[in-house]
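Q: What residues go here?
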């Protein structure tokens, strides 16, 4: 029979570790009688279980009243309960675990996209400048029924009589 202790979740000692870091929980008891740890995944660990592995989750018990998680994984959040003779002694809480994120791939992709769009914009700009300069050298506009001419290369209006 497990004797429960009602506690407010806000008052629980909590820890927010980084993925892959080591976490140590110390249960404040001098007793070595039937010390058990109840883990968030629903499993229990007794002092007779020196260590066990569940997938990538590695737990150890040292000095009977200490729980060591050697490498915290993302799915290890939740309550860790220390019991002695089926009586809750202490509750520890991991609300969430900070994931290790590799930003290198994102940065490289962002730079490649930026360079691609920069080259595309530069190509369009150079092409439009080339086409514009090629066309303005070969023609000039004459306004109908007018003595004025528009010189595309100089972007000015000139009087035809002043050309002669």
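A:
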């Amino acid at each position: 029979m497990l004797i429960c202790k009602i506690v407010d979740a806000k008052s629980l000692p909590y820890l927010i570790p980084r993925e892959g870091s080591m976490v140590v929980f110390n249960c404040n008891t001098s007793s070595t009688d039937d010390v058990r740890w109840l883990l968030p995944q629903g499993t229990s660990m007794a002092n007779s279980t020196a260590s066990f592995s569940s997938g990538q989750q590695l737990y150890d018990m040292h000095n009977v009243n200490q729980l060591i998680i050697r490498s915290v994984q993302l799915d290890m959040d939740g309550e860790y309960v220390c019991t002695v003779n089926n009586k809750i002694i202490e509750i520890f809480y991991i609300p969430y675990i900070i994931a290790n994120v590799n930003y290198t791939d994102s940065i490289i992709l962002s730079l490649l996209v930026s360079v691609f769009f920069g080259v595309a914009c530069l190509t369009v700009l150079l092409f439009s400048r080339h086409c514009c300069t090629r066309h303005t050298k070969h023609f000039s506009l004459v306004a109908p029924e007018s003595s004025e001419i528009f010189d595309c290369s100089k972007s000015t209006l000139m009087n035809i009589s002043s050309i002669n």
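A: Context that may help when evaluating the design: The chain has two domains: 9-94, 104-163. The longest strand covers residues 87-94.
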